Amino acid sequence: MLRLWRKIRTVGRVAEPAPLPPATDQPPAAAALAGSVQIRHVDAGSCNGCEVEIGSAFGPVYDGERYGARLVASPRHADALLVTGVVTRNMAEPLRRTFEAVPAPKLVVAVGDCARNCGVFAGAYGVAGAVGDIVPVDLEIAGCPPRPEAIVDGLRKLTGR
Ligand code: SF4
């Protein structure tokens, strides 16, 4: 325990300093969130590149939680869905049902180019569509994969912090 306290004292804070708040406005539905958002992540058919970046966005360096965003284990506890990947045929119905399980008012964030417009998987036989073809999308985060800064920036648009 003593070693841990000593390490905390010597290493100090590793998180990047907070950048200025994002310039663009909140999505209209995010106004009710009052500065904090509980997020359920759904992998609808991702290659997992986006998941690696989401992991970084919530890691100690980018620390998405300091802006009021928190990952939760159930859609029933969530305000928003963070959906990655193109929506495969097998995941279209689970995504619809997960969306229905989120209490209103609810938001959907499409993370990555696959989620936005099918990306490199457009036209593939197992693809049902982009996220917006299955559930209504409030915010899109571009990139293949998006950088953690872009994901954090998107989360800050939701919380307004
Ligand atoms: S956007 Fe890129 S990194 Fe993300 S799931 Fe699609 S191919 Fe993978």
What's this model, at a glance?
The protein is an alpha/beta fold and 161 residues long.
Instruction: Please provide the count of β strands.
Output: 7
CATH topology: Rossmann fold
Distance between the termini: 34 Å
Order of strands in the sheet with most strands = 2-1-3-5-7
Share of β-strand residues: 15-25%
Helix content: 25-40%
CATH second-level architecture:
3-Layer(aba) Sandwich
Task: Encode the helix/strand succession as letters.
Answer: HEHEEEHEHEHEH
Sheet with most strands: 5 strands, parallel
Overall geometry: globular
Give the ligands present. iron/sulfur cluster
Can you give a write-up of this model?
With 161 residues, this protein is an alpha/beta fold. The chain has one domain (35-159): Rossmann fold (3-Layer(aba) Sandwich). It is built from six helices and seven strands; from the N terminus they run αβαβββαβαβαβα. The chain has helices at residues 2-11, 49-57, 89-101, 113-117, 131-134, 148-159; strands at residues 37-43, 69-71, 80-84, 87-88, 107-111, 127-129, 139-141. The strands form two sheets. A five-stranded parallel sheet has the order 2-1-3-5-7. A two-stranded antiparallel sheet has the order 4-6. α2 packs across α6. The protein is globular. The chain starts with a helix and ends with a helix. 39% of the residues are buried. The site of iron/sulfur cluster (SF4) has 13 residues, from α2 and α4.
